[in-house]
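Go through this:
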Amino acid sequence: VGADRIAVGAAHRDQVAAIRSRLGAAGAGITVDTANRLQGREYDVTIVLHPLSGRRDATAFHLESGRLCVLASRHRHACVVVARAGIGELLDAYPSTERVHLDVPVKFPDGWEANQTVLTHLDAHRT
């Protein structure tokens, strides 16, 4: 796999800048960008920083299910999710606070629930 077929994704521009800085010349050709900018693109291998990794709170920005979906779906062959321990506990401490309206269909997947589902799936593949 050539460098041009590898991407590293993160939620924030400052994270992207830090990753690019750490990669230095060794990262030449590797795409390093935010989830928003990776949207619509495809790579053979992706390495993604989980949006809630290292956070002390679960803001709406970090819980937005589309961001997690984009980061986890840009690969063709392999996706490596990098995360710190404690995301499950963070989600438990900040449960969904969206109002529930009876007989009104949900327009978008709930970010809290989406993160719980992804963590459950990834738990079987943890190293």
Q: What stands out?
A: The mean pLDDT is 88.
